Amino acid sequence: MSLFLAIQHGRVMEKMVEANTWPFVMVYFSTSNPDATPHVSIHVANKGIGPAKIESLEVFDNGVAQPGTQALLRAMLKSTDLGRHIPSLQSDVVDEVMAAREDISILDLDARNFTPQETDLLRTEVAKLTFRVCYCSVFDECSVLDTRKTPIRPVSIKACSVPEIPFGH
Fold first, then answer.
1. Which residues, given as ranges, of the chain have pLDDT below 50?
2. Which of 10, 135, 139, 158 could make an S-S bridge to 52, C-beta 3.0–4.6 Å?
3. What is the rounded CA–CA span in Å between residue 66 and residue 76?
């Protein structure tokens, strides 16, 4: 009986450790500042209670993977040539460890850098973007969140693979 209880106690403790180190990564966007002025941003957030190592990130516009900010802007603005450099803040989260409840803006676009028509188009198009992010816990238990699939929730996988077209600079 003592052996059974010890084994059972070990399993319970293992589950408690897993529960207390559980990451839950999500991607979301915003189309305005707190004062309601137009401002487009895309965020990766770890809403879990444990750290998450981000292994890969893919951003899709109309199902097409975008290699970086300028390509994404051209796709969203329906332009092959922006004709100007558009200042943007970009953070790379791949190969980073996100703490529990950490939120990182991976793309931040100030509406003052765009015409009103471009701003309206960006605000519409950002809502159509889809994402695939693969991340692992401190125990190397990996999950992938693919917003192209429903229901939108992380799915456990053995390991993250390198995407064909990762989102980068």
1. 9, 12
2. 135
3. 10
